[in-house]
Amino acid sequence: MRTPTRPRSSGAALRRRGLALVFLLPALALLGALVLYPIGWSVVRSLFDASGTGFVGLGNYRAAFADDATLTSLRNSAIWVAVAPALVTALGLVFAVLTEKVRWGTAFKLLVFMPMAISFLAAGITFRLVYEQDPQRGVLNAAAVAVHDTFDPDPSYPGARPRPGGPAVAPDGSVRTAAAGPGAAVTVPLVGIKPATLPAAARPAAAPADGGGVHGTVYLDVTPGGGTPGTVDPGERGLPGLTVNLLDGGKVVAVTTTAPDGSFRFAGHPRGTVELPAANFAAPYRGVAWLGPGLVTPAIIGAYIWIWAGFAMVIIAGGLANLPRETLEAARMDGAGEWQIFRRITVPQLAPVLGVVLVTMVINVMKIFDLVFVIAPGPVQQDAGVLALRLWLVSFGGGNDQGLGSALGVLLLLLVVPAMVLNIRRFRRSTR
User: Helix-strand-coil percent breakdown of the chain, rounded to 5?
Assistant: First the structure.
């Protein structure tokens, strides 16, 4: 005969619950003090004006959506959410898969993950220098200028201009001489150029001998210690590499380039007007305005991807290591290619991990602040602004309106909560 089990005493159950509550109290106290109380106070503060004494209800929320800077911040935050998490996740997936197939995968993972050890402040300062407009300081523009000059080596002479009394300057910036007839030599004296900046190929100026066709010389009309203006003096050097057009009735009929001594000739064209296009005097290529209004947000997103791609790679690589290898081997034995295996087996089996990484990155970019604050220059900071940066600027960065700032904080919280709930649901499903 089985002895009936004794029911658990209610007193023991209460003691266990009380003991659990004792252990939870410190965590609950910290949670209330550091999370719940600030959230509640922000909601209350958002209903008052800047001084905190006048009740305005939802006025701060209406003001936020009527402010162009806030709307720009919302638009930029939407761009961040749509672009950055997807790129970080995709790049982390590619790195995780590729590092499994190379011997030095561990070293590569270390290098890619290393940016996570750098503070966002240090990373922002680094990329502020990388994106510098001056090619002498900015790495990207130094590379861009090097590539550009490789394929377009023609020199330009920014700031050059005709000597007063010489050829005329057209409204478009080109330099035109008077019409030249048969046998006439055309000289184009230019000033406004430092002799030290002339190309190494420049030789003493010399006009070509009359051999038929319009001909002449473009030269730097500067002689140390004197010289005759408008005349090719000894020691004056020609300007090589200039594009020279020959016009007939305003139409370009021939094009040539000046020689190292500045000379040019249009064989077979006995008359016409000589023109030096404005492109000869344009400023040299200086790279891309990475931190200009149009590119500042993509540039900062690039810095963010550089930092977080290693994090995504490590998380995805952990999920990849737990995939059943027999499935992959069976697919290879059936003749599936690596791309088919990746698309039809690896990615679907990694979907839960990819989802966690993606949602985590969404939550992260919704709160992005420091990279934007450090990288974006002051004049374009509003163009690159995100919601968290706008919150800080309104509350503490000169606006001194904690009412409007609290409203922006509540709005940011409402935008983040759905992503947090989705992440918690995914976590619960994965632990079942």
Answer: 55, 10, 35
In CATH, the architecture of 59-142+290-431 is Orthogonal Bundle (1.10)
- HSE-CB at 186 with a 13 A cutoff on CA atoms is 29
Q: Give 105-136 as a DSSP string.
A: HHHHHHHHHGGGGS-HHHHHHHHHHHT-SSTT
Domains in the chain: boundaries: 59-142+290-431, 161-281
| The token pair that represents 270 in the structure block | 């006995």
How far apart are the C-alpha atoms of 405 and 392, rounded to whole Å? 7
**How far apart, in Å, do the first and last CA atoms of the chain sit?**
39
Q: What is the pLDDT along the chain (432 residues), one digit of tens a residue?
A: 455 555 555 778 888 888 888 888 888 899 888 888 988 999 999 999 888 888 998 999 999 899 898 999 999 999 999 999 999 999 999 999 888 877 888 888 888 889 888 888 899 999 999 999 888 889 999 998 888 878 776 667 888 888 877 788 888 888 888 887 776 788 888 888 888 878 888 888 886 666 678 888 898 888 776 677 878 888 888 989 888 999 887 788 889 988 889 988 888 788 888 899 888 888 878 888 999 998 999 999 999 999 999 999 999 998 888 888 787 788 888 777 878 888 888 888 888 889 889 988 998 998 899 899 999 998 888 899 899 999 999 988 777 888 998 999 999 988 888 888 887 777 777 666
User: From CA 245, how far away is CA 190, in angstroms rounded?
Assistant: 17
Q: Residue 91 is which amino acid? A: L
User: Residue 253 in 3-state DSSP?
Assistant: strand
What angle separates helix 296-321 from helix 105-113, to the nearest 10 degrees? 140
Tell me how far apart the alpha carbons of residues 150 and 145 are, in angstroms, rounded to a whole number.
8
